[in-house]
Protein 1
Amino acid sequence: MSSLAPEELSIISDMRFYVLGLGPIGCLLAHNLRSVLPRAHPVTLIQKTAKQAWKPQNAAAKITVENQGVRQSTDGFDIEVFDKYSGSGGGVRFNPKLSREESAVFTPGDGDLRTEPIEALFITTKAHSTAPALSHLAPRLTSRSTIVLLQNGMGLYEDLVQRIFRNPESRPHFILASNTHGAWLKSAFHVVHAGLGDITFGIVPDSRKRDFEISMADESKPLYERSLVLDDITRPDDPSFDQYRSLRHTVAVLRSLDYLGCKWSPIGDVQLAMRKKLIVNAIVNPLTAVLGCRNGGLFKDEASHNMLRSVCEEAAAAFRAQIEADTQAWLDSLDPSVDKTQVPVGRVPKELGADALEREVLRVTHVTRGNMSSMLSDVRKNNPTEIDFLNGYLVRLGEQYNVPMPVNRALVQLVKMRCSIPIDQTF
């Protein structure tokens, strides 16, 4: 593990980092945060209920990560429980010394309820659970807060902006991340890191027009020597330092997570990675959920290959329409005096073509052939699925740009039909 530079540590000494969503990826992330950050920097795990937090593994506030039979554990986490007594978004500081019965009737005092603003929040919940959770925490999230979204699917940021953070002046900073690590929970707070991957993340453009990627436009250097720089976010002598302080430090902490392969990239590169991952999940997840098979059970017949091709063609057409529309909107926003014929216009990345998407799906499916998809697991546990942020997102994208999406629409309906039938009623 790398550590933060001393000068960075000196200015984040009073910053608390929160993790919401304690599934396999959330536990993996929290473990690595605790491993990198000195104990003076609190890492708080958010639990939904006191009953959930009281479970012995949770109350111990220790996370174990297992990789190839080798186990490593971290402790020293704080735990907060969503407060049912307050509308302020407060969290009750969990006291593991209380018994289960005492926790059930516990009424928090002034010293137990936390209502201070949250500066940095990492979210790894299921996509459909994110908005309800953030609705509760919204009173503690300000324009100086930073939220890291680390989930499957796309459209979640837009959903949160529409439903919760409509005012750009009070909206927190957002970081979008794409994860390729494979992990599963052996038990609560015991995660098996089954597949080593990476995390690519980028900063959503700022409503105040600050350019976080200005160093990438430095034409005095060849492109391969350019990189993103923390000082482009803010620096201690910046008059707006307090506004961007949590964003800078959250990026710095993410960059220090070497074991997770975290890389800060331009937001356009992150969106490309997210689109590619979206298509993998939009094919593998619904098909395995409906067919009841592991990833390796797919694409052994002509019918599943036809399904794969159709989804990739629909997605590629929607992405092309979206990128072309965004490019035209940008051109229209230029000053009339600019000769638009001389403006370099980006092309649709070749990675988003139907052929390239199809190859990526087959590659990932082969690598993960022994895995059970998260959607199949959700179906078997009668849990809600993320279909609305996978194929559902593609359907909405097609509607927005007038691109027909019949196969993606059918997959959405098939998964919802599958979920409506209790698993013990199948034969």
Protein 2
Amino acid sequence: MPKKGRRLKKCDEEEEEEDVPVKQMKIMNSSTAPLCFDSPCDFFQSLISPVGLDEFFQQYWEQKPLVLHRSDAALASYYRSLFQLSDVKQLCARGLRYATDLNVCRCIDGKKKVLNKAGKVKFSQLKKDFEEKKATIQLHQPQRFKDELWRIQERLECFFGSLVGSNVYITPRGSQGLPPHYDDVEVCDLETSSVMSAALICTVVLILQLEGQKHWRLYQPTVPLAREYSLEPENRIGPPTHDFILQAGDLLYFPRGTIHQADTPSDVDRSTHLTLSAYQNMSWGDFMLDVIPGCVFDCMRRERGMRSGLPRNLLTSPSIGPDVNKQLCAFLRRLADDLEWDNHELRSTAMKRDFISNRLPPYLLDQGDVDPVGKPPSIEDTVCIRFKEHLLLTVEPSQENTDEATELVVFVLHSLKNKRETHMMGASDDDDDDEEEEVISQGLRFPLTHLSALKQLLRSERVPAAQLQLTQDEDKLGLMLGLWSEGLLCICQTS
């Protein structure tokens, strides 16, 4: 077991300054506020301080872990306030359910053993399993209940432009909750105080140690930047490359695919840490799956060859011959040429809709905050967009069922009506049938001719209505009134 606070080093090697993939930094007390929430960029910078944004993304992001050991009493106190074991007791009184909201588990002989009961969680039973069976408590998506975690994850979703989920792990002394594994998300853990040893592979992972201590071991990835969660037997992953202890106020980042495991030392009561995960299904390959169909759709409208029929019985043939492969390669080269030389604008639809419909609403937003503000705008006013960080534009085929030719339209999608209480919990059976209608109801539809004016509004702090990039004043008023009625636009006060 490493001594707490010791320098991170490679196992079975002499300590070297140049080749240490995990950076450990000692941060002394600071009189400034623990975290800055002024903007998403400022928040993330304060989260990883003193490492700068450029240094983080050039040297660590998707490359190697980063460990920040801190000696900051104010930051440790703030981390501790984010979640504690006493919070679980209060939440049990609100009707937490096993599996849905909370798991109880322990790693025994290298395997995860789930100790869940049926139905609602009783804290007395949960505490008994925690103390007597050395079980780890894993609470799913605590931002649903804790306002400050809502605030943190909302800032991170704005910064990364992707969904950010979280779990809290509380592990008793001398215990481990999960076997070695890796995830398909980028993870950041904030440790609290519990005893737990688990090896994980994640996408973007940030770990915040909230209280107590946790002993971490990191391993060389078996699948770099893995796309799925996987358990890995210790006889396959080999010895750990890094071995260290996190204390309250410390932070750990490791890239997707990093195998890891963690346990609570036997000389502390418990360990609590917060795992923040992001960037799941946010690879170049995922983006291509989203935008290429739109490129093909546009190319089919221009290219007669792509509209010609397939060879007879192609779909029923047991295999596809080289001639078909050759023709597909020719079409793909044509698509690539169009993208490179014709300045073709890529249209992401599915990824944008998934993000905007499932992300957190703005922090502490009340329903009254999304009502129209002030009087309706006129052509003489100067206007500005509200909640700009929570708006997205998509260009996609009209979803109306008509006999007319398919036309492209612009959707303004927003997350103002999303429910914080269901964030990252998946769709319930009751919601499945209405899922698409719910997404559409959270946005507005405009003709494609309005796209330039919408981009103008999103890129500018304020825009005189008369200067909106639309030909007719009637169209300018229609655009402004549509946004204003949805609570997305207001009249700027003159200075």
